[in-house]
Every structure is written in structure tokens, then in C-alpha cells.
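Budget justification aside, the reviewers requested a transparent look at the raw inputs and outputs of the sequence design task funded under Objective 1. We therefore reproduce one unedited record. The lines immediately below are the C-alpha cells for a 154-residue chain.
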């Protein structure tokens, strides 16, 4: 399968935009044609996958639609590690993953393997578990309903 043509073009990306205004300014100041705008963890709310900061990046869904109306594409970073420290019921990627048993566990145990990534303690999806694909797809679809991204950096 061939990748989409736009994915072979020039992409604008960096960590540290910090606000949607800074992101817009960088895009305008680029002053050359480009095909895709990427976002990094600074766009996320507390570096949680499948979220965006409603404070610093309020209006991000509209910005993405604006980019798309100009023929550009939006790529969002998603880490394959899900925060395990959020209050129960407040972070559906983790809550749903626990209910569906998709996270890696210690050998002969139900205890989750917990590691450290950007948001702190995180659980790791077991992509050898067929249920994980459905869980991942559902998380991505819910996020796509919020922000109509064109690609993911995993």
C-alpha cells in the first residue's frame, strides 16, 4: 500500500508551541508551502493521550478544519502508553482499557505493568491482544470526533 501523497510532502512540527496563538504564528511565519502541521505533547491536556488543552489550545478543532480547507493536513502525537493515575471515571482511555483487560500485566498475574512516560505512571496496551485493536480504534475515533486529524504519530 502506498502512503497518502501529502505524507511525502513538507511537514511543519516542533515541541514547544505552548499556545494556539504561537502555533498559528509559526505557521504564518513559515513563509513557504507545506503539506502538514504536526502537534506534540504540549497540545495535550496534562500530556494525556487523546486530549487537548482547552486552555492553551482552545479552538484547535477549528484551526484543524481551517488547515484542511487550505489543503493542508494535521497530524497528532499519540504515545502508546496511557496514564494510570487519573481519578476513576475521569479518563476513558485508561478506564475502558482496564475494563477490557487490554493492558500488559506481570507474568501469571493481573497486576498491570506500570512505567514512566510524559504524564507519569502509565499502563501499556498489549497489542498482541485482539481486543486492544478495537479499544485503540475506539479511542482514536472519539478523539477524531473532537479533532478531525489526518494522521497520528505513534
Amino acid at each position: 500500500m502506498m502512503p497518502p501523497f501529502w505524507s511525502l510532502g513538507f511537514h511543519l512540527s516542533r515541541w514547544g508551541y505552548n499556545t494556539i496563538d504561537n502555533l498559528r504564528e509559526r505557521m504564518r511565519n513559515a513563509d513557504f508551502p507545506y503539506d502538514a502541521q504536526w502537534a506534540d505533547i504540549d497540545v495535550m491536556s496534562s500530556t494525556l493521550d487523546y486530549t487537548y488543552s482547552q486552555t492553551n489550545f482552545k479552538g484547535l478543532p477549528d484551526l484543524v478544519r481551517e488547515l484542511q480547507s487550505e489543503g493542508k493536513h494535521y497530524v497528532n502525537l499519540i504515545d502508546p502508553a496511557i496514564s494510570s493515575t487519573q481519578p476513576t471515571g475521569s479518563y476513558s482511555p485508561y478506564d475502558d482499557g482496564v475494563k477490557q483487560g487490554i493492558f500488559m500485566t506481570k507474568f501469571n498475574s493481573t497486576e498491570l505493568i506500570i512505567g514512566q512516560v510524559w504524564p507519569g505512571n502509565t499502563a501499556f496496551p498489549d497489542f498482541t491482544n485482539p481486543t486492544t485493536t478495537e479499544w485503540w480504534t475506539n479511542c482514536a475515533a472519539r478523539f477524531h470526533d473532537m479533532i478531525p486529524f489526518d494522521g497520528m504519530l505513534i
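The longest helix spans residues 130-146. The mean pLDDT is 91. Computational costs for records of this kind are itemized in the attached budget.
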